[in-house]
Amino acid sequence: MKKLSFLLLTILIATPAFANEYDDDYDTYYDDDNYTSEPYTAPKSNIANRDTYAGFRIHRNEHIALKYDVHGEHDKTVRSENFGFGLNIGNRLTEYVKLEFETLYTGSSKNKYETNFDYDVWSNMLNVQIYKNFGGAVEPYAGVGIGVSGLWVDIDGAIGNYSDNNFQLSFAAMAGVNFALNKYIDLNMGVRYVDYGKIKHEHATTHIDATEFYIGAAYKFGLFD
Fold this sequence. Notes:
Helix content: 10-25%
Number of helices: 2
CATH topology: Porin
Strand content: over 45%
Distance between the termini: 40 Å
């Protein structure tokens, strides 16, 4: 968590430099045939056309939870910290709305209550984000996601022995900041809560959700450049 905070502070300090470098990509010059005291700025259509992006994200799960509900007994919650990784592709539908598809994997193993809990999650989400661009380089956003996750859970020990898998409807809410290094490359970082869903065992139910911090990069391109 301290490393993420330090990274965020470093990027925020460097943001003016990002904005200046981003603005340098625009060609500003004087028209020799019609000289005036005001500079002429070339059209920015080549930048605006880069409305599609593809990239990757690395996730840090803080206290991913497996809520193990044995029917007729108290809930047992097992929390662990782990990493995940994913790929995403998206498009700026309008000046304020993005739509993206994200596929990611996460998994871990934890021993508690004299029982080993092992799980793997493959999540596929469709995210809608509302964003606002400042200075051509800084872009805070918030969004929601919905999708389907494949859940594989193995529980072996004193409170039960189960090995089950299922595909479940998943939901997510997120917020973050996107930084344009130049007209081709973006960096992004943020936090999101995701409910991956539940697996029903013979005598119990396992519910998996997580709060995830992530950092990633994306390449911007235009389908019709």
